[in-house]
Write a structure and sequence with these properties.
heterodimer; A: alpha/beta; 9-stranded mixed β-sheet; 18 helices; globular; B: mainly alpha; two-stranded antiparallel ribbon; 2 strands; about 70% helix
Chain lengths: ~450, ~350
């Protein structure tokens, strides 16, 4: 007995040492591989250039097979994606690395909420892509958001978030509402207030355990996405408390929060995912990227029950850019890859897989959603709906602290009214205090 | 204990005596390869140098790592806290003096976070330690398969904070969570765990309690097993029942251990971060819509990494550090008191 335990202990120690050593050796091998490719200038002598792409969430490049496709046509390139799931973790990390001038990926994704901060504070850390691409491929407002005052383009547009409303046809039917997508769109056309009114009608005969919408914040974001003026004016001054757009969206959200039509979920939370699975809400403001999300979270049970109708107003919610940091070792190769990934043909492929909507209008004619998606959303012409929305989205002026201000309004102000029963005035005051803290006032 | 210290304090004068100065080796010992004294050869000089320098070399790794990853950041944070620094513009710092601290002390959010840290600390630490003692006492009985029970106790501690918290988020979910379902079963209205003031603090505490109770129980168990059995025997002869033995023998004997766990738990509670952050889900660093469970750690994270105000975040970090120092001093005083009273 005694010897056998001692023997096994020695074996374990040996295994541990072996594991550690292999780890070290693997680390070395990786390093030297990287080093040799540097010396080789990136493409020769059999050494592969490894390009890394830093992203958050799901970008769909891997899912659509774009990396494999690129590596096949460029045998000297290998691509590695570093995904950070949460934006609020991804962006601070990226900011510090950009400023340290090391540790950045060869290509770095930038969320639309952070693009102004990147343009205003990090422009010198990014390669000017304006000279590398034909800018007219992209929507004008998309380029504008990533362009500095002196005309430097620091990021190429990936997707955008044109808005629609996704709704559960089966629940609408049970509540005695119109289920035809064209007629529905007509009922709330032009005004988010009409959408809320329909919600009140829904709640009168709502199937038990269901609400009209997932959260008041999502309605707020959707409504704000159609306004020109958000938290900053076009000269970059903070105007959130005077902004007509914010006021309008806030009032709509308050109407939702105080009339018991919301499932009171927080978007991107686990319970929200469950809400999809259990069918606890009948509609959700639906930017194009939400299509893939609904399919994934609602699962097999939701198949054929969802439908898509045009939103009250054309609006944009979300969307990203990819930029090439100057600290990267393989800038030339990275620029080529970024160009290729954001070209209309590739954007169309991502749309087919993930329904992330292209930021390049020339792709719109050839968009083809996957047949599974088509089936899932009752054959809704999503390409048509999102394209129509995309073409009329107004240019929005974003600011450096757009994201934290938005969070303060939705996750403090609106949430207090929606979940804690505070009055809209109290909610507004709480959001005001929070934003003052954010802005250091 | 005093002999090695002396060896370090006067390394030059006691060079010859140094090898013998080690505890357990009497002063006369010149063994273990010591060359005869007086021989000033190269070899003996090397040997003497070795004796003087080696201990420093042996302890150096810790102090180098400590310096690089603790001391330098600590001082750098102090420097940052006296400046206006934005995360997006690390090089463009401007001198702010004590402005960040003034700003902090006049901020409702800071006092709120401090208070939350305290209340969550109390409602997680106290029940946790009481339950741990109780469990340890039960485990101390003769049980079949006692190792299994002990391992099971330690499993929550081995679970990652993230995994545990995500499960708890689902349990406490407002809509369709198991806890509300159970409450409904016994006829109590559902609680919005995440947004109610005490509900959310209770929920966060329950995660902490779940994770750490077993860990503390094992520490108590180890201490209990070191209590001499004859104490219990004589207590039994005196007619004390199990409960009286627990109160009059076990608890007093555990006193230093209890103090240790209190210190460790207090430090842990002051730095509470992962559980409330993940419990809050998206925008968890706000600690709820009214900051009802925003701890100091979360407030610092929110200021520094979400809002990007690194100067103020550094001021919070230093304030936390000072608070911990004060707590440590208080605990030192208490433990000295206890030792004297024994």
């Amino acid at each position: 007995m005694r010897t056998s335990t001692r023997g096994s202990r020695r074996l374990m120690a040996l295994a541990a040492v072996a594991a550690l050593t292999t780890g070290l050796l693997a680390g070395c091998a990786e390093d030297s591989d990287d080093g040799s490719s540097n010396e080789g200038g990136g493409n020769g002598g059999g050494g592969k250039t490894t390009l890394t792409i830093g992203t958050f969430g799901v970008f769909g490049y891997k899912q659509a097979g774009l990396y494999d496709e690129y590596m096949k046509s460029h045998p000297d390139i290998s691509i590695k994606e570093n995904v950070t799931t949460r934006t609020d973790v991804y962006w601070p990390k990226t900011l510090t690395r950009l400023q340290a001038g090391s540790g950045t990926d060869d290509i770095q994704a930038i969320e639309v909420g952070n693009i102004t901060e990147a343009v205003q504070t990090q422009a010198d850390k990014f390669v000017d892509l304006g000279k590398e691409v034909d800018k007219s491929q992209w929507l004008d407002w998309k380029n504008t958001q990533a362009t500095t005052k002196d005309g430097k383009l620091i990021g190429l547009g990936t997707d955008i978030g044109p808005m629609a409303i996704c709704y559960r046809k089966d629940l609408f039917e049970k509540a005695g509402l119109e289920t035809d997508r064209a007629k529905l769109a007509e009922q709330w056309k032009g005004d988010w207030g009409k959408y809320v009114d329909l919600g009140k009608k829904y709640m009168k005969k709502a199937p038990s355990g269901t609400k009209f919408v997932d959260s008041a914040s999502s309605v707020y974001n959707a409504a704000l996405g159609g306004e020109t003026e958000r938290y900053y004016d076009k000269d970059g001054n903070v105007v959130w408390d005077k902004s007509a757009g914010v006021k309008k969206a806030w009032n709509v959200a308050m109407d939702v929060a105080t009339s018991d039509m919301s499932a009171k979920l927080k978007q991107f939370d686990k319970p929200w995912d469950q809400g999809y699975a259990n069918g606890t809400f009948a509609t959700v403001a639906c930017p194009a990227w939400m299509i893939g999300y609904i399919q994934e979270k609602s699962g097999e049970a939701g198949k054929g029950k969802w439908d898509v109708a045009a939103a009250p107003t054309a609006a944009n919610w979300g969307g990203s850019f990819i930029g090439v940091p100057t600290a990267g070792k393989h800038q030339k190769e990275a620029v080529a890859l970024a160009k290729w990934l954001t070209a209309p043909e590739q954007q169309a492929k991502v749309f087919a897989k993930q329904a992330s909507f292209p930021s390049t209008p020339s792709a719109y004619g050839s968009l083809q959603p996957a047949s599974a998606t088509q089936e899932y959303f009752s054959g809704a012409p999503i390409t048509q709906i999102f394209s129509d929305s995309a073409k009329t989205i107004p240019t929005q002026y974003l600011g450096t602290k757009d994201q934290p201000i938005g969070t303060a309004i939705t996750d403090i102000g609106i949430l207090q009214v929606e979940q804690k029963g505070k009055s809209p005035a109290q909610g507004w005051d709480a959001a005001t205090a929070e934003i003052k803290d954010v802005l250091g006032q | 204990m005093s002999s090695p210290k002396q060896a370090l304090a006067h390394p030059a004068s006691s060079a010859d005596a140094a090898p013998g100065d080690q505890p357990g080796a009497a002063p006369r010992a010149h063994g273990r390869g010591t060359p005869p004294p007086g021989n000033d050869s190269w070899r003996s000089r090397l040997y003497r140098w070795d004796m003087k320098a080696s201990p420093y070399a042996f302890i150096a790794p810790f102090f180098i790592v400590f310096g690089a990853f603790s001391l330098v950041p600590l001082l750098y944070t102090a420097w940052y806290s006296l400046h206006d620094v934005q995360l997006a513009n690390l090089d463009g710092q401007t001198w702010a003096g004590l402005k960040n601290y003034e700003n902090l002390l006049s901020s409702d959010f800071f006092w709120n976070a401090l208070w939350n840290t305290f209340t969550i600390g109390v409602i997680s630490t106290v029940p946790q330690l009481v339950m741990a003692i109780g469990l340890a006492h039960l485990l101390n009985y003769k049980l079949r398969g006692s190792t299994v029970w002990r391992v099971v106790m330690l499993t929550p501690y081995a679970t990652s904070v993230a995994a545990a918290t995500l499960v708890f988020v689902l349990l406490y979910s407002w809509d369709g969570g198991m806890i509300n379902w159970l409450l409904d079963f016994v006829g109590i209205d559902p609680v919005n765990w995440r947004e109610s003031d005490w509900g959310s603090q209770f929920a966060v505490s329950s995660i902490v309690i779940w994770r750490w109770t077993g860990y503390n129980a094992l520490i108590y168990l180890a201490a209990m097993q070191a209590i001499p059995a004859d104490l219990y025997e004589s207590a039994a002869i005196d007619g004390a029942n199990r409960w009286q033995q627990f109160i009059h023998v076990t608890i007093p004997q555990l006193r230093p251990t209890i103090l240790f766990t209190v210190v460790v738990s207090t430090i842990g509670a002051t730095q509470l971060f992962g559980e409330p952050l993940l419990f809050g889900g998206v925008s968890g660093s706000k600690g709820g819509s009214e900051h009802q469970y925003q701890t100091l750690g979360l407030y610092m994270y929110d200021q520094g990494w979400i809002i990007g105000n690194l100067g103020k975040a550094s001021a919070i970090a230093w304030t936390m550090f000072l608070i911990l120092l004060i707590v440590a001093v208080i605990q030192l005083l208490i433990s000295r008191r206890l030792r004297k009273s024994q």
